[in-house]
Amino acid sequence: MNVIYIMWLRQLKKYFRSKSRIIGSLGQPLLFLLAFGFGFGAIFKKAGAGNYIQFLAPGIIIMSVLFTAIFSGIDLIWDRQFGFLKETMVAPVSRLQIMLGKTLGGATVAAIQGVIVFVLTIIVGFRPHDLILLPVGAVVVFLVALLFTSLGIGLASTMEDMQGFQLIMNFLVMPIFFLSGALFPLEGLPKVMNVIAALDPLSYGVDGLRFAFIGAQSVFGFTTDMLVLVILTTVLLALGSKLFERIQA
Amino acid sequence: MNVIQANDNIITVSGLVKKFDDFTAVDGISFEVKKGEIFAFLGPNGAGKSTTIKMLTTLLHPTSGQIILNGFNPSHDKDGVRKSLGIVFQDPSLDDDLTAFENMQFHAVCYKVPTDIRSSRIEELLKFVELWNRKNDLVKTFSGGMKRRLEIARGLLHHPTVLFLDEPTLGLDPQTRNHMWSYVRDINKKEGMTVFFTTHYMEEADRVAERIAVIDHGKIIAMGTGDELKKQTNSGTLEDAFLSLTGHVIREEEATGLDRMRRMGQMWRGKRR
Question: Which terminus of chain A has a lower count of CB atoms within 10 Å, N or C?
Fold first, then answer.
């Protein structure tokens, strides 16, 4: 067993032990699926854009991955407040290994959350168009999970308490979600919105997953989606471990 | 002869200073701890004991001064220092959502305790602190004393060269306290493990430590064996010795308003780093 593995294992154990957190985190995607999916479904169809649940489901899956991934940052703040962070900080292991283990753990948890929400969307009526492309979708989900876990942990490394993180949630995560095209098509929008969406890393995740799951025409091109996600994940991981290294207890 | 003496010191600290903004928590202290010695830092809360421990254990960077621990300098070779030590913190540092066994296992992996002896050593230590029958219970179901015992077991798990105990017996009942010290002394003898602990219980320092450094307001004001300190101050007890050295008694509730403000300042400023 090495350090990365034990850090990863710890995250997973903690996740599966907090049943209330798992169930609680399904409320929001379910609400979005029902309220938006059925609420706008009729208009969406009338506008000739097809089945809205089909369109919305990948967006909601990515949303739950985003929220769970960023939440890993809160875990780090908890560790700091409850003192466990000290135990890891004095251990004779490289900060990069700690950071990698934490990030992989958080990303795995977020990806599992994505799978659970995927099942939820099936129940609500979503049907992926080609089962062969499901693994491709899984890769997209894991990349998104990895990207935003690194971001969450990097940001949390610079913070002492929950208040700061709440701010991030409102001024960073919410805009990232709402402007990503998770809820609406990016075609035919005002130019400004298109520019913003192109700057939003989540857009590429949503676009990629929609390509894999419903065979939609990719807005940015699937290769671009993957490239952006991979490059950004690498950059954030490096940045995150730099920030993590600077933590003093 | 001189060379051997130099190698005898497992910790050498010279001119160590830690400032938080304009507040000086540790004010130019120097001391040596010999290999295999039980050494106590005695002082009231807010005297700079924990800050010193944090610098010795790589958790804080000193503002100035030098530390050599087991031949390593924490400023340059953090991992060398980290490998050499075991720490029991003043505040809990366990994962409440893991079991006692999992907490031990996590530690064993981080400190690379060989796989073949891992389980047996965890068992031995959990039995020693009388938590073996609770090994699969989540730590959040433990009482304060049980958590402390678990932390002590964890700190000993990788058989460190130097064991740091920051107020280790705070909140422990007298039996557990005696039990803990007898075990710590036992490994101290058997394995030659150096023990560095802080306390504000004078009888504890007097009874357990071979040498004591008295620290107040970030400065070491006296150092020596319990008897030396008493002789130096013509006092019958260490309590009186402390009083005559510092001009005030050690107990927290007797601390002056200024001490409390210092402590607050340390807390708030320290947190921002």
Answer: N
**A-chain residue closest to B78, CA distance:** A92
With vertex at residue B46, the alpha carbon angle to CA B44 and CA B51, rounded to the nearest 5 degrees, is 115
Domain chopping of chain B, boundaries:
2-272
Taking the Cβ of residue B238 and every Cβ of chain A, the question of whether any pair is shorter than 8 Å is answered with no
For every residue of B65-107, DSSP letters joined together read: EEEEETTB-TTT-HHHHHHHEEEE-SS----TTSBHHHHHHHH
- Give the tokens for residue B15: 């001119």
Alpha helices in B95-225 (DSSP H): 100-110, 115-128, 144-156, 174-191, 202-208
- pTM (two decimals): 0.84
Q: Which residue has the tokens 């168009």?
A: A129
Q: Quick check: A248 and B273 CB within 8 A?
A: yes
CATH of domain B2-272: 3.40.50.300
CB A144 within 8 A of CB A226: no
Of A84, A90, A249, the CB nearest to B82: A90
Give me the residue spans of the domains in chain A: 3-245
- Work out the number of other CB atoms within 10 angstroms of the CB of residue A154: 22
d(CA A88, CA B93): 9
Instruction: Determine the Cα–Cα distance for residues B203 and B226; give it in Å rounded to an integer.
Output: 10
pLDDT tens-place string over residues B205-262: 888 999 999 888 889 988 998 888 888 887 777 777 777 777 766 654 444 556 556 6
Helices (H) and strands (E) in chain A, counts: 13, 0
Measured between beta carbons, the chain B residues lying within 8 angstroms of A86 are 59, 89, 93
Nearest CA in chain A to B92: A83
Q: Is B54 on the interface with A (CB under 8 A)?
A: yes
Distance CA B266, CA B217 (A): 12
Tens of pLDDT along A188-222?
889 999 999 999 999 999 999 999 998 878 889 89
DSSP calls for B252-272? GGG--HHHHHHHHHHHHHHHH
Please, are residues B134 and B155 in contact by the beta-carbon 8 Å criterion?
Answer: no
Taking CB atoms and an 8 Å cutoff, what residues of chain A touch B110? 3, 6, 88, 91-93
Q: What is the DSSP letter of A180?
A: T
Q: What pLDDT is attached to residue B260?
A: 59
Q: Tell me the chain A residues in contact with residue B55 when contact means C-beta distances shorter than 8 Å.
A: none
A221: left (phi over 0), alpha (psi -120 to 50) or beta: left
